[in-house]
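It is worth pausing here to work through a concrete case rather than discussing structure prediction in the abstract. The textbook approach is simple: state the sequence, then state the predicted structure, then interpret. We follow exactly that order.
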Amino acid sequence: MVHVLSVMTLFFIVQIIASDLANQCTLIPERVVEGNEWWRVLTHAFAIDSPWLAFIGLPIYYWLGKETEHLTHDSVFPLGFLFGAIVTGLVYAVMPVECPPMGAGLFGMLYSASLAMTMVRSPALTVPALAKLRISIISTLTIGFGFVFLGMSMFLGDMMYMYSYSLQSGSGILIGLLTGLIWSHIRLAGKEEDIQKKEVPLYIPIASQPIRRDEKTLINVMVEQREIVQEAQIVEIDYDESMLNEILEKIHDHQYESLTEDERAFLERYSRSMK
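Step two, the predicted structure:
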């Protein structure tokens, strides 16, 4: 972003010294199409040919550009700016109406404001409340200034400049919005991948997923077997208690020596189970 602003500032300084520089770099549709001067599709984004843009536009570029770079820590601002400038230049060069030369103007200002406004509202960023308020105010004022400038051209009835300002305003806001949304989507996708790599579940609860038919059959079989085992245990307990009572009565009446081998084995098993 600093390099983009440096080129703009250098262009303006050279333009003051050599007034013909703007004529060589601004976007003139006839020269682009008929004269094959396609470099103008890109150079028009740096061609500052008016003092008001130098003293108003450059500070807005710098302030909002630094804010977005500080929030994103990457080069999303200049990449979106250059891509948008080329697209806008191509559209402007093939417009079927006569248009005046287009230099650096509303596109860059409204692109910066739209991009910053989109980013501070993105769920991919955590922006302090004061910073969000500050960026929102400056961005809103910049966009409002662009629409006021467009409205003035409509009021004056200058159709050629109205076409130019309309294209710059619309493309600046739209490309800034798209750049912010694409960046936000990529950043969110990257965060989701990191979370999935770091937090891998060790098990998946059955209730969190639909139960397949084979799983449901297996569960039913396990429940039935458990019920059968429980019923068998109850019968065995009842049987053991009745046998124990008979053996105890026999011991009381006829002493321990009167027990059979099976009865003595039952008593031994029963005593081990009670330990």
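Step three, interpretation. The CA atoms of residues 248 and 254 lie 10 Å apart. Residues 2-198 form a domain with the Rhomboid-like fold fold (CATH 1.20.1540).
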